[in-house]
Design brief:
The structure is a single chain. This protein is α/β, with parallel strands linked by helices and about 230 residues long. The chain is built from ten helices and eight strands. The protein folds into two domains: about 140 residues, HAD superfamily/HAD-like (Rossmann fold, 3-Layer(aba) Sandwich), CATH 3.40.50.1000; about 70 residues, Putative phosphatase, domain 2 (DNA polymerase, domain 1, Orthogonal Bundle), CATH 1.10.150. The strands form two sheets. A six-stranded parallel beta sheet has the order 5-4-1-6-7-8, with helices on both faces. A two-stranded antiparallel ribbon has the order 2-3. Helix 8 links the parallel strand 6 and strand 7. It starts with 7 loop residues before the first strand and ends with a helix. The relative contact order is 0.20. One of its GO terms (cellular component) is cytosol. One of its GO terms (molecular function) is phosphoglycolate phosphatase activity. Pathway: Organic acid metabolism; glycolate biosynthesis; glycolate from 2-phosphoglycolate: step 1/1.
Amino acid sequence: MKPLQASGLLFDLDGTLVDSAPDLATAVNHSLADLGHAALSETRVRQWIGDGARRLVARAIAGRRDIDAEPPETEAALARFFVHYHDCLCDRSQLYPGVRDGLDRLRALGRPMAVVTNKPAAFTGPLLEALGIAGYFGATVSGDTLGVKKPDPAPLIHAADQLGVAVGDCLYVGDSAADQGAAAAAGMPLVRVPYGYPGDDAIFADHPAAMTLTIDQLATGLTNAS
């Protein structure tokens, strides 16, 4: 692996640091049940994660990833989703393999780090705390921190500013098309994790420029460059 260069590191949350799909699926299915809809498999829900809670809920009601407009029940289902997700936020969510070791090594290198996610702030901080990784990050930018969210580049730029690192000196680590779009618009190199959620695999196949590394492999690459 060639050495990497980055003064600051920004990370997506769901599908990159944390596999939160089991708890998201639970909250989605409880919300659907409240509205009289049938439950969905966790496998299907995994394919719809990555564009924020509202989009996830709208896809669940419609029963497909690609939707032209939100179903009429989206607002009611989203309100129920927030209630249910609060109750099961970290029941089965877990860090991906190599994440904690990689974060330890990156912190030892003195690299400032931030989380940039489309998850609402009410869930971002508590999930990071529950999994014991909140202390690694000098900034957290959630889906409702600004007036826009990924794939808009503003959250990434804001996170870099919060860390005091030039945008061009940061790497963004993610797993989705929203991550790719935000990084490209911000002028940041993107490292894609080799796991995450499968909904955007075809997009990465069409645009394979991103390096694919686990978090611990990223730490190794930066260590070799030091």
